[in-house]
């Protein structure tokens, strides 16, 4: 989302102050723990609402600007989709210390599944959600003047939702290709601009693409003991684990060296892929 951090910060502050006032105004009649939970819940609800308002304001201000394929705020699904996008986004960043991107996505998916069941189970609505993230990512580049990290995250989320959609709803693929998503998350400008430009129906990223297309697209080798600086390697030279397609390496040597560690994960990924959505759709029975 374009100024998510700012919006979140502002919203959190306002919500906290409002909760404080509320707290001071009414004497608590419930047990302290319950009261604290209640306060937290009301804080979360207020924050959610404030975030939506902030985003809505921002959208209205940008009414004359290109929407890069995303629906207008007068569209009947606008509120539902942006609400979902914000909730997914917030939950995605919930564990900022988590180094495992897959975990972050899973947290975001699980925590939005019930409330946004209609979106998760409609390919059309999911497409709208995807275009919400590509719209935000494109704006990060063209309006925010090179907020590449924000653009990376928005592009990665769009790609993840696209993968979910293809696997779970359209059934055009058997599994989620997380390597592609991870590449966008960590990717250079060339990788991100190329992805977003392909997703949007307008030509807003054409100029930027001309600037960045000569940059080599870089990826990182999954072997933690890789000898390359920053484990960075040109993407065109990378090798993928053909079993799970979740990890990539700079060389057969690195792949071999990492196999003892990756082996268990690799088998786990294969199983998880087969069960993940069936578990969710069947009333969350895996949890
Ligand atoms: Zn555009
Ligand atoms: Zn390597
Ligand atoms: Zn593997």
UniProtKB/TrEMBL annotation:
UniProt KW keywords: Metal-binding, Zinc, Zinc-finger
SUPFAM superfamilies: HIT/MYND zinc finger-like
Domain of life according to the entry: Eukaryota
Keyword set includes DNA-binding: no
Protein name (record): MYND-type domain-containing protein
Lineage: Eukaryota, Sar, Stramenopiles, Ochrophyta, Bacillariophyta
PROSITE patterns cross-referenced by the UniProt entry: ZF_MYND_2
Species in which this protein is naturally found: Skeletonema marinoi
Gene3D superfamilies in UniProt: 6.10.140.2220
Gene Ontology molecular-function annotations: zinc ion binding
Ranges of Basic and acidic residues composition bias in the record: 14-25
Region annotation (Disordered) ranges: 1-39
Residue ranges occupied by any MYND-type domain in the UniProt entry: 223-266
InterPro entries found in the cross-reference section: Znf_MYND (IPR002893)
Bias (Basic residues): 1-13
Biased composition annotated in UniProt, kind: Polar residues: 27-39
């Amino acid at each position: 989302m374009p100024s998510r951090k700012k919006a979140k910060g502002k919203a959190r502050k306002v919500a906290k102050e409002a909760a404080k006032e509320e707290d001071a105004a009414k004497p608590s009649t419930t047990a302290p723990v319950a009261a604290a939970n209640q306060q937290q819940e009301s804080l979360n609800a207020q924050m959610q609402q404030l975030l939506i308002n902030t985003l809505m304001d921002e959208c209205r201000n940008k009414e004359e600007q290109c929407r890069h394929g995303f629906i207008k705020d007068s569209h009947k699904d606008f509120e539902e989709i942006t609400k979902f996008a914000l909730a997914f986004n917030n939950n995605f960043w919930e564990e900022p210390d988590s180094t495992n991107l897959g975990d972050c996505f899973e947290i975001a998916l699980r925590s939005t599944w019930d409330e946004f069941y209609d979106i998760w189970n409609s390919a059309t609505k999911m497409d709208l959600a995807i275009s919400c993230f590509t719209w935000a990512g494109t704006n990060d580049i063209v309006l925010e003047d090179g907020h590449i990290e924000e653009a990376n995250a928005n592009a990665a989320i769009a790609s993840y939702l696209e993968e979910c959609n293809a696997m779970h709803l359209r059934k055009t693929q058997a599994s989620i290709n997380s390597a592609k998503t991870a590449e966008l998350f960590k990717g250079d400008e060339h990788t991100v601009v190329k992805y977003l430009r392909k997703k949007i129906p307008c030509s807003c990223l054409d100029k930027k693409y001309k600037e960045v297309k000569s940059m080599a697209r870089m990826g990182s080798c999954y072997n933690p003991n890789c000898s390359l600086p920053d484990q960075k390697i040109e993407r065109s030279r990378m090798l993928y684990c053909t079993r799970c397609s979740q990890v990539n390496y700079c060389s057969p040597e690195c792949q071999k060296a990492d196999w003892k560690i990756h082996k268990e994960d690799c088998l786990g990924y294969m199983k998880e892929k087969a069960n993940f959505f069936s578990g969710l759709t069947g009333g969350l029975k895996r949890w």
